[in-house]
Amino acid sequence: QVQLVESGGGLVQAGGSLRLSCAASGRTFRRYAMGWFRQAPGKEREFVAAIAWSGSSTDYADSVKGRFTIFRDNAKIAVYLQMNSLKPEDTAVYYCAEAAQAYSGVGRNRADFGSWGQGTQVTVSS
């Protein structure tokens, strides 16, 4: 099973930027769509962004569209989330996830993803 390790979280002021990284193990990374989810205290884990296995398509939650960008580097076996114009409501633990099925489309549901990282904390101060 793939191992996913997130990094890049931290404390930033509103309007600032952060780039999250997710390093994956395994040689099959390039076959799977990848996603980012987040979970704020007392709330359900929610979809943030996803990218196809080929990198040719992406999807974003309405709340982050235009501010966040997901991209992947299959050579480095990693996926990234560039977060700009951060808002206090972006504060959450961010999780990287790998699609449950190889060569699947870009999904938004937690059930579409089979492997998860341990999460990285992002805190945006006002």
Radius of gyration: 13 Å
Strand content: over 45%
Look at the structure and give the mean pLDDT: 96
How would you characterize the largest beta sheet?
7 strands, mixed
Helix-strand pattern? EEEEEEEEEEE
Count the beta strands: 11
- Give the assembly state of these chains: single chain
Report the total helices.
0
Gross geometry: globular
Instruction: Give the CA-CA distance, first to last residue.
Output: 39 Å
Question: What structural class do the secondary elements suggest?
Answer: mainly beta
The percent range for helix content is: under 10%
Low-confidence stretches: none
Report what the structure shows.
The chain is mainly beta and 126 residues long. The strands form two sheets. Strands 2, 4, 5, 6, 9, 10 and 11 form a seven-stranded mixed sheet that branches. The chain has a four-stranded antiparallel sheet with strand order 1-3-8-7, with no helix packed on it. The mean pLDDT is 96. It has strands spanning 4-7, 10-13, 18-24, 34-39, 46-51, 58-60, 68-73, 78-83, 92-99, 113-116, 120-125.
In short:
Helices cover about 0% and strands about 50% of the residues.
Strand and helix layout:
Elements: E1 4-7, E2 10-13, E3 18-24, E4 34-39, E5 46-51, E6 58-60, E7 68-73, E8 78-83, E9 92-99, E10 113-116, E11 120-125
Parallel strand pairs: 2-11
Antiparallel strand pairs: 1-3, 3-8, 4-5, 4-9, 5-6, 7-8, 9-10, 9-11
